Amino acid sequence: MKTWSLVEYIRSHSLDWRKEETMDRLLEAIGDARFVLLGEASHGTSEFYSIRARITQRLLERHGFSFVAVEGDWPSCYALNQYIKSYPGAPESPAEAMKAFGRWPEWMWANREIARLLDWMKELNRSREQGRQAGFYGLDVYSLWESMDAVMEYLTDKGLMDELEKARQAFSCFEPYSRDEQTYGAAAAFLSEDCEKEVQALLQDMRGRNKAAQGDSEEALGAEMNAMAAANAEHYYREMMRGGPESWNVRDRHMVEALERLMDFHGSVAKAIVWEHNTHIGDARATDMKEDGMVNVGQLLREKHPGEVFALGFGTYRGTVIAGRSWGAPLSRMKVPEAAAGSWEELMHQAGSHDQLLLLDNAPEELYRRVGHRAIGVVYHPEYERGNYVPTVVPERYDAFLHVDETRALEPLVLQEV
């Protein structure tokens, strides 16, 4: 199929996202999936957040979904969970809850788009009894120190002195590294000075305690999840300093492990909505990640739960985005140039310069070829645009694709732009 006929296929089979019935068609396609993975082509695009919020609201309100799990750290996201469930002592507003995001890039979850979703979820939860309220959780693995602090705080508050002493012994191993991940990672990777046994033993203790309690509170679950995050973060930072794909794989395997633990906690009928970048939720086997020895959340879930996963990819032809020019740099509002010639985004644009949904379940054989598909990270250089395209077999990577032709930058809660 030549490029022009690919465009004709997209034009004749895509659905106008501006029409309400298109949302209904998407929900029909999702069907009985227990894991709905909602992607994004950047971490700084307003429409990717607002559209995912619309889809999430429908799934939570009308289709029995249990929680939202995102590409964020457990301790900071749990503050948002406390807010929407009106827990005693919980933050009183989204802005107050979002103060928990002290790690760069804060704008990923501390933004006005998420604040609006949180207020909607809080209102939804007012009508639901405890235990059936919709949750908001973080799946990521970066929170080594924050998660250790949270475990210690939980054990102290509960007066669990035996477990607290074990935790102190485990975490004392990390004291020489002054809460610096790279310092610890270098020592662990190159000097064999690691704390793996200590944090793994603590995790097993926390899991054993929760298992004995037979479905304890969400607070106890949180302590276990923080112990898991600390254990896997230790592994992640150790592998990160060694280089290669294994640190990526540790991170995505952790996110799947955390997600499955949440599903267990919410019971046999639980259903999850996952918000992560396309590079995590789209099947890695449909990209050059496979040749590089990398796996991701989308691939692992499809392998573990065949027939229960629906992945929706996102993309844009042009617009603006929030990102940094280096890791830890102040945020900038940057221009996203028109998509590269021959890319998936350009094909979608040629098919119609409007927002459109393409369901991929009956895609023709000719669509099963690799094309460049744009991926923008938290670090972005628009002037080097050609380096932002991932070779992708789109129908193998996603179950559907939502193209937003022109997008605008995310609205951080506190804008400190350069």
UniProtKB/TrEMBL annotation:
Any coiled-coil regions, as ranges: none
Top-level taxon in the UniProt lineage: Bacteria
SUPFAM superfamilies (UniProt xref): EreA/ChaN-like (SSF159501)
Membrane-spanning intervals of the chain: none
One GO biological process term: response to antibiotic
CDD domains (UniProt xref): Ere-like
Name this polypeptide is given: Erythromycin esterase family protein
Species this chain originates from: Paenibacillus aurantius
